[in-house]
Amino acid sequence: MPKNQTSDAQPREKAGAKVVLWLLLGLVVLFGGLYVAAHYVAGDKVPRNTTVAGVRIGGHPQDEAAERLRAGLADRVARDIATTVDGEQVAVDPAQAGLSVDYQSSVAEAGGEESWDPVRLWNYFTGGEAFDAEVEVDEPTYNAFLTGLDEQYGATARDGAIAFAGERIETTKARAGRALDPSDTLTALRGAFLDEDPDDVALAMAEVQPDIDASDVQEALDGFASRAVAAPVTLTFEGSNVKVFPADYTAALTLVPTNGELVPTLDPAKLNEVVGARITQGAPVDATVTLVDGRPQVVPAKPGVTFDPAELEAGFLGAVAKPQGERTLALTATVAKPDFTTKEARALQVRERVSTFTTYFPYAEYRNVNIGRAAALIDGTLLKPGETFSLNDTVGERTEANGFTKGYVINDGILVQDLGGGVSQMATTLFNGMFFAGLEDVEHKPHSFYIDRYPIGREATVAWGAVDLQFRNDTPYGVLIDTSFTNSTPSSSGAVTVTMYSTKYWDITTTTGERHNLTPHKTRRIDSLTCHENEGFGGFDIDVVRYFQPVGENTEARDDEVFSTTYTPSDTVICTNPDAVDE
C-alpha cells in the first residue's frame, strides 16, 4: 500500500472512534436522565395497577394510597359480620371482635416504597397486583368477645370434684361444655371481614371436655377419698397411741385438680389443730400458787408432749391412704418443759396472809357488774419478786365486750356516766391491800374529791389509757392476790375484799393527819338532759404516813412514807332542765 494512503486512514479511524464515544456518552446521559425521571415519577407511589381488597390505590404516594384505601373500605369496616352460631343469627361488630385494618402496612405490602431499584421502577410502570388488606387482631379484645359468645350460646365445662363433709364424701359430676374454637372462629371472621359480597359465616359450637372427667373422679375415690374416711388414723409416740378420726381430720384434706388429676393436699395448720386437740398430754403447764381451803398451795408444773409438725405433715397423707389395719403413723415425741417449774414456785414462799382489806358500796347494779368483773379478772394474780402489777393491764379496757357496763365516774368535778364506772372501788381496795402488805407504790392517783366510803388519803381511781394503779413486789417473796366479792342489794351494801398472801416481810402501821387547807365548794346549775344532782362539800388536804417495821429475816431499814392528798371541793349540782333524767 502507498505510504500516503496509510497516513490518511489513521485520522479517519480516530475520528470515527470519537464519534462512537460521544454517541455512547450521549446514550448514557439520555438513559440516565430517563432513569432519574422515572424514579422521580415513581417516587413512593404504589404500582399503577395495584388494588388492595378490591380498592384501586395504584399510582398514588403511600400516605395518599393509605387514605384512599381507608375511604374505600370504610363501609366494609363499619358493617357487621353476619354469622350464625349453631343456626342462630348473630351480628358481629368487627371492632368488638378486635378486628381492624392496618392501612399503612397494606400499602407497603403492595409495593409503595421509594427505591432506585430498576425492578421497582419497572414494576411501578408495568406492574401492579391484587392484594389482600393487612387485618390486625387485638387478642385481648378478641378473647373477651369470644368469651362473651361462649357464655351466651355455649356452656362451660364443669370439672368433676370431690369434697369432704366430716366423714362423708361429696362428689360433683363432670359435665362437658360447648364453646367456639378460637382459631377456626377467627379464621372465619377474618375471611368475611372485608369480603365485598360475604355469605353468612356459620360458627359451630364444639364440645369441650372437662379437665377432670368421671374416670378421674373415680380414680381419686378409689385411690384416696374412700380410704381417707374408712377408719381413724393412729398416731404413736412415747409408747402412747392417739387416734384421730375422719370427722375431724378431713377438714384438713382437699383434692385439688392438677394436670388432669385430683391430687390430695393437706392444710398443715388445720391438721396440727386437730392433732393438738387429741393429744391429752398437750402443752406444758406452768406451776402456780393457788388457795386451797383458804391456804396457799403450790400447784405443780406439768411437762407437755410435743411433736414435729413437719414430720406429721410429711407422713399423714400416706397414712390416710392406707387400708384398715395399716393406718398408723409413728411420730417422734419431744417432752416440753414448763417455763415456771414447781421448784421455782415453792421458792416464792407464798405461805401466809400478809394483808387484807375490805371496802363497802351502796346498791347499784352497775357496781355489781363492774366491780365484780374487775375482781374476777384480778383474782389469782401471782406477782414474782421484782414484778409490777398494773390494774389497767390486768383488767383490760372497760368495754361491753370485756364484761363492763356504764356507771358513774368523776369528770371535771361532777359525776357523769361512762363504761366501767365503779372500778375505782376495786382500785381503792387493791391499793390498801398493797399498802398494808408493804409493797412499793409505783403509780396511784386519789379521786379528785373525797368519797366518804373510802379511807381518807388511802384511795385510788383509774381510767383506761390515762390513770393506772401500779405497785411493785419489792420483797424477796412471791405475792398471791386473792379477791372476794359480794353483790349489793336494795337492802344491803356490797363488799369487795383483797387479801394478799406471801411471807411476811414488813409490819405496817399508819397514821392519818388532820385536814388542812380547807376550801369551800361551789354550786353549779346544769341545763342538760342527763344531769346528776349532788350535794357538795368543801375540799381539803390530808397526809397519811406509812411506817415499815422489818419482820423475820428482814434486816432492811426503810424510811417512813408520806402520802399527801389534795381533795378539790365537790360542787353542789342543780339540774335546771325540766326534762333532765338522773340516770
TrEMBL record:
Top-rank taxon: Bacteria
Transmembrane segments: 20-42
Keyword line: Membrane, Transmembrane, Transmembrane helix
Residues covered by the YoaR-like putative peptidoglycan binding domain: 94-201, 224-323
Family matches, as Pfam families: PG_binding_4, VanW
InterPro entries in alphabetical order: Glycopeptide_resist_protein, Vancomycin_resist_VanW, YoaR-like_PG-bd
Signal sequence region: none
PANTHER family: EXPORTED PROTEIN, EXPORTED PROTEIN-RELATED
Record-given protein name: VanW family protein
